[in-house]
Write a structure and sequence with these properties.
This is Condensation domain-containing protein. By secondary structure, this protein is of the alpha+beta class. The protein has 6 helices and 7 strands.
Length: about 170
């Protein structure tokens, strides 16, 4: 997993590399599972300078990326990813999470290579680290490849943990 930050618009991005056959429908369904699991990925933030408060979308109304593989030549991959990350349309800036799936073109005998680029609001990334999102996405994808819904571990609220840690109280489970 590679991560980067785009400071101009307050987004954090990470990339997952897939080698071999990719079940794109399962990956899209896994991404939908991820959005349902993490409220921060359904939180729409107002445009900069607006006095509106962030609002949380219901699981059914949240935007799930289509994740149709975009074929890209290996030589153009870096520029294509940069173009995706630099999109600054009003819709792109208001979404809490965006993703695009790229399929690297090669010889017919080559093993298929895919890159999933995920970019999310820094406010969401501060609450749910990209490494946790990547782990949860892979958990959901593994389940979806078997035509199952993912089973999740309980997610603890980072704020709840911080409050208890600051007050010197240890949580016992």
């Amino acid at each position: 997993m590679d991560t980067c930050t785009t400071p101009t618009v307050g987004f954090t991005s990470f990339t997952l590399h897939f080698t071999g056959y990719l079940y794109a429908v399962g990956l899209r369904d896994a991404f939908a599972d991820l959005i349902v699991r993490h409220e921060q990925l359904r939180t729409v933030y107002p445009m900069p300078g607006s006095s509106a408060a962030p609002r949380v979308l219901s699981a059914g109304s949240a935007v799930v990326p289509r994740l149709v593989p975009v074929p890209v030549a290996a030589a153009d991959l870096s520029d294509t990813i940069t173009e995706f990350l630099d999109e600054e349309t009003a819709a792109a800036l208001s979404l809490p999470v965006r993703a695009r799936l790229f399929r690297q073109l090669g010889d017919l005998d080559d093993t298929p290579q895919h890159l999933l680029v995920v970019t999310l609001r820094r406010a969401a990334a501060d609450r749910v680290p990209p490494a946790l999102l990547a782990r949860d996405l892979m958990t959901a994808y593994a389940a979806r490849r078997r035509n199952l819904a993912p089973t999740w571990d309980v997610v603890r609220s980072p704020r709840r943990l911080r409050v208890h840690e600051l007050s010197g109280v240890r949580l016992i489970e």
